[in-house]
Write a structure and sequence with these properties.
It comes from Flavivirga amylovorans. With 406 residues, the protein is mainly beta. 11% of the residues lie in helices and 51% in strands.
Length: 406
């Protein structure tokens, strides 16, 4: 029943996530130089778009504009694109498709460029699968490509055309930038961004960037109380058929309390994180029999669970997000056992509980990075690991509330 419920909710969530449309405040400038305020879908793709989806308001229908329709568009504080009509060299970086000539193979295209830095000198990028090219302009020039090309003339030896260094040396002169610094400058986004910032600073020019600042506090500490519906089944493999010691205990509702430490990964808008959540949990149940020599079987299971896993966020808007996570659970039990009471005798038998790790999968909702609610399913756990003749299945479905302290 727990598995069926979990799969049902996951299916509903998947449909809901697929149908969610995240539009953020933005604008576009049409071919008549009119600036239109609108809402733009933030697809967060690494590849440079050729179109974008927009709505004039939340209530209006979604429409699409292409690179031929607009000169510029952007999402405020996040991203900005401009239309470029000119030459681009798209020489492949993949060895099997690599050119054998040194010179760039320019072709004229109309496409969007992503704005990385604006100032006295501007830096742009164009990206598609297996291709990343940078463009630039200063106050006296038009936009042109910073030329970097891998080529392979003979014998599978890769050579490099690094003409971009000469371009920067000629066009971005400043007393604080040395020839040696340009010589060692790599054709990488972070290195080029730093270089352009340095050039603009050297010329007392403001650096305008458009990427939304990542959350500085990468550590979350969250109190996680909740309720846990657990069940346990034990079987003795030494007997054929039903053993008098076999038992299928009832589902029991119990309380659990955890303290979660979450480390956000500082990229991709903090969508990924690592989580660890030491949690106290307990399970108590008993079975009574009138047709067995065993009169009663009692389980008293208390432990500290330590789930260690990974989480992924799916943003709905600036204040709300869904998340899914998976964890491996390591269990530290505390004086836990299963006790058998026999009819007509004061004797008992006791099995000490010792668990093996198991897995947990959950999904939930977080609001204002403060409050959260999660539904979590734990796969079967063997709690009688020290007994070769015994097998057991302990599973649980939890509803977890969260309140972030940090």
């Amino acid at each position: 029943m727990k598995k069926q419920l979990f799969l049902l909710v996951i299916s509903v969530l998947s449909i809901n996530i697929h149908s969610q449309i995240t539009f953020e405040k933005g604008y576009y400038i049409n071919n008549s130089d009119q600036k239109i305020e609108c809402l733009i879908k933030n697809k967060e793709s690494r590849n440079t778009p050729t179109t974008f989806d927009y709505k004039l308001s939340e209530e209006r229908e979604e429409k699409v504009l292409t690179v031929n329709d607009v000169k510029e568009f952007g999402i405020y504080n996040i991203v900005k694109y401009i239309r470029f009509e000119g030459k681009i060299d798209k020489s492949s970086m993949v060895m099997s498709s690599m050119s054998n000539t040194k010179n760039p193979e320019f072709q004229k295209e109309t496409l969007f460029l992503k704005v990385l830095i604006e100032g006295k000198a501007n830096l742009y990028s164009y990206e598609e699968p297996n291709l990343l090219k940078f463009f630039y302009k200063n106050e006296n020039s038009k936009i042109s490509q910073l030329v970097f090309k891998n080529y392979m003339p003979v014998n599978d030896v890769i050579h490099k055309n690094e003409r971009y260094k000469q371009q920067l040396l000629n066009d971005l002169k400043c007393e604080n930038i040395t020839m040696n610094q340009i010589k060692n400058l790599e054709y990488k986004k972070n290195r080029l961004v730093s270089f352009f910032k340095k050039y603009n600073n050297c010329n007392n020019s403001e650096n305008i960037t458009f990427e939304k600042k990542q959350k500085r506090d990468l550590l979350n500490l969250t109190l996680r109380p909740g309720f846990k519906n657990s069940s346990l089944k034990i079987e003795n493999g030494n007997y054929r058929g039903l053993s008098i010691r076999d038992a299928d205990f009832n589902n029991e509702l119990g309380f659990r309390f955890g303290l979660e430490v979450e480390l956000l990964m500082p990229y991709n808008r903090n969508k990924w994180s690592l989580i660890i959540e030491p949690t106290y949990q307990s399970y108590k149940s008993e079975k009574e029999y009138s047709d067995r020599s065993v009169n009663k079987i009692t389980v008293d299971y208390k432990s500290i669970e330590i789930p260690i896993g990974i989480r992924h966020y799916l943003f709905l808007n600036n204040n709300s997000k869904l998340f899914i996570n998976g964890s491996a659970i390591f269990d530290l039990n505390s004086d836990s056992s299963i006790v058998f009471d026999f009819n007509g005798s004061s004797s008992t038998e006791k099995l000490e509980i010792e668990s093996r790790p198991n897995m947990a999968f959950g999904f939930g909702y977080k609001h204002h990075d403060k409050y959260s609610l999660e539904l979590r399913y734990q796969t079967n756990r063997n709690v009688l690991n020290k007994y070769a003749a015994w097998s057991s299945k302990y599973s649980a479905l939890s509803v977890i509330f969260g309140y972030s302290l940090l």
